């Protein structure tokens, strides 16, 4: 089903005493006086977590599964696949109702153009979904996510894709949108750099609004993120960003940017990675607490980052472990409403907003034919 390539690394998770190379130290955030940090949630909290997730499943903001599957000569996601972090049985055990499949290339990979790689991964995604019709369904809209869930399928949303796939042609962006792309990462492009968006970059964001493609500013410069928040008429995503106040990772967001994201009704999707959030479930929960408190409960989501080659916190090794995280948040006093927004509601809101804005914009704005050479620098 997939070409045989180099072996992919085995999924790993860390414990409290493990040391991550080159990872900045976590900043300890104390719990309320007298509140312990248990290693495992008690049975009652875990049962409550399962009950809540059965009603409000997880919309996972980032999965590297398409690239991971390229390294396997054969796989069966319906029965279970030990070579990856994600398969249908574990998605169901973890109550994952929707999954954003990343089209990013691994860092340092050369010899393959971003457009070529994205198209090949789009083709693979379609092949995988067609081979697992009882478990997976490709969707484009918030309504189709609901339909897939009602039919017992996990909804697959295409994106984020690297902004480099656009090159200097908005026509490529439109073609990718026609193929189902819903999220584009702005970082790592010549038109969204340290000084912010160029004039062409601004035109890219406007055309994304017209098409209903969400802008992802994870890893982008502060200037790019701030300009995108000001310019975009649809909510802006941070598909893999936690709180820099707790852990100074370059992809994590400072509080002032979290505040701006909250004011713009964007969405910060906290990644389940040991490097960005810390080696334990309580560490991840600390970041979720912080983002909720600074940006607001309507602006925080979850990003599993499974099958992307990162190290995961202990007890969050694969897509089945979400109930353990939700149990920890229940322990901390998160309300049912806050948890339903975290897992499901906020992603639905963002996608619906993008669809509504796109329909309105298409009546007011013609298709853009701008190219990078036509607009020059800021």
UniProtKB/TrEMBL annotation:
> Known InterPro entries for this protein?
Metal_Hydrolase, Pept_M19
Instruction: Identify the Gene3D superfamilies for this entry.
Output: Metal-dependent hydrolases
- Disordered: region residues: 1-40
> Any idea which GO molecular function terms this record carries?
metallodipeptidase activity
* Gene Ontology biological process terms, A to Z: proteolysis
Question: What protein am I looking at?
Answer: Microsomal dipeptidase-like Zn-dependent dipeptidase
Q: Which Pfam families match?
A: Peptidase_M19 (PF01244)
Q: Which domain of life is it from?
A: Bacteria
